[in-house]
Amino acid sequence: MKRLKIFLPLFVFLACEKEEINLPEVYVFRGFETGTVRVFTKEGEITSDLLSGKFIANNDYFVEQNSFELPDFSQDLEIIFETKGKAVFQGADTVMTANATRVANKIYFESNDTLYSDNSLINMRDPRFQFSPITQTDVVEAGFGGFPPVHNFIYGYRSCVYAIDYGQEIKVPFINILDKKCPPPDGIIVCNASGVANINNAFNENYLNVIKNSTFTWVDTLIVQQNYVVFRKE
Hints:
Strand content: 35-45%
Radius of gyration: 23 Å
Helix content: 10-25%
Largest sheet: 8 strands, antiparallel, barrel
Oligomer: single chain
Number of helices: 4
């Protein structure tokens, strides 16, 4: 028993010492991965290049406007883990310190500043996306006008850079996505398309079950492209 009392603290000390040697960890920019443009309907993914090509051609205005391109990204950027829970994004024109929180293979690089927005969908609580800020609060403004009074919902959150850990590589996902919505025909509202481009997030394929099984959604078709900015461990 005395030997255990002697060697156990030594083992713990050596394990901690070994972990510290591996820090800081540095991941350097290695390039882009461009995903294919995928088309989904309520029946599932259109795997025919001919059919998906026709749909994309019919929505060429959106594709042209949003370009389905990778975002501008500083190619001298590095991700430096100073500790397991703290990282620095460092480049010639960029220095950002963030708290690094891991959930499975996902990494949330969270800023310390709280932002406020009246838009709950863009990168926050959008069911199409896998990621949303891990620190969120709801703030309700005072009522104004009418009866009952109208309230504006203001959402407080800490902005994040979302990433996926692949061991020797960290990939920062960016998504282009188009929703084509077709409401029930009533002679007033017609089909329309709207979307977002180069949003730092990953597509949540469970959303396909939502539009397939729900009788309330008007989403008829989705165009999705998933791209990545790749960093490799030095």
